[in-house]
Amino acid sequence: MTKKDHAYRQLRGSLLRGALRPGARLREIPLARQLGVSRIPLREAIDQLASEGLIDRHPGLGSYVRSLTPEQIGQMYEMREVLEGYVTEQASVKMTGAQLGRLDDLYGEISAALRDYRASGKWSSALRTRLVQADLAFHQTIALAAGNEPIRREIERLQAVAAVVSYRPELAPDEMSAMTRSAAEHLQILRSLRSRRGAEARKLMLEHLRHARDRALLIVQSAAAAEIHP
């Protein structure tokens, strides 16, 4: 693994974990020291992350964790609906038994995280990481089954952007109910795929994404309010 690849993986992981908040400036000297690389491979890693839409680069001003306006979030989810609605219907006739089993396992992980949240009543970074990873993998398994690699890669990119810019459940007033609904939606999608009901699975995926969009908008608005009234 090159130093640039190391920096890229570490930095991307921090973004997906929520360790770096939307709008935060990436200060190269302390960040390079933290990652154990020089500024050149760090800048190459930042360039790659910028090309994926996770970081904004402003010449002369520096690099910042990506943030989106409500309008941009709406547009991003419109794109996800187009792509993920298509791959979900395609996957309904192409999914293998192993892929369906994988979705079962991922739904189980989402449900387990929800149980742990109910038991503790506390939100944590570790819980966020579990949910983000399971959700990304669930959607990616469906996209992979559809067999269109360019679309799969674009879905993966959009998922990562959504996780970075708008997944801050600690700011949401009713995260427990939102998690419960989301888990149920994943199960409904899985059941439709298992029964090879493509049109139904597509409809369920679109509803799931629209709920996710509404949630993202609520969280972004809550974050803006928190910045105004710390």
Count of separate DSSP helical elements: 9
CATH topology value of the largest domain:
Four Helix Bundle (Hemerythrin (Met), subunit A)
How large, in whole angstroms, is the Cα Rg?
18 Å
Q: Tell me roughly what share of residues is in helical segments.
A: over 70%
User: Strand share of the residues?
Assistant: under 5%
Which class do the helix and strand fractions yield? mainly alpha
Query: Which H/E pattern describes the elements?
Result: HEHHEEHHHHHH
CATH class of the largest domain: Mainly Alpha
Judging by the overall fold, what is the CATH architecture of the largest domain? Up-down Bundle
Poorly predicted segments = none
Structure description:
The protein is mostly helical and 230 residues long. The chain folds into two domains: 3-65, Orthogonal Bundle (Arc Repressor Mutant, subunit A), CATH 1.10.10.10; 70-228, Four Helix Bundle (Hemerythrin (Met), subunit A) (Up-down Bundle), CATH 1.20.120.530. Helices cover 77% and strands 4% of the residues. It has helices at 3-17, 28-35, 39-51, 70-94, 97-120, 125-146, 149-166, 175-194, 198-228, and strands at 25-26, 55-58, 62-65. Strands 1-3-2 form a three-stranded antiparallel β-sheet, with helices on one face. β2 and β3 (62-65) form a beta hairpin. The mean pLDDT is 92.
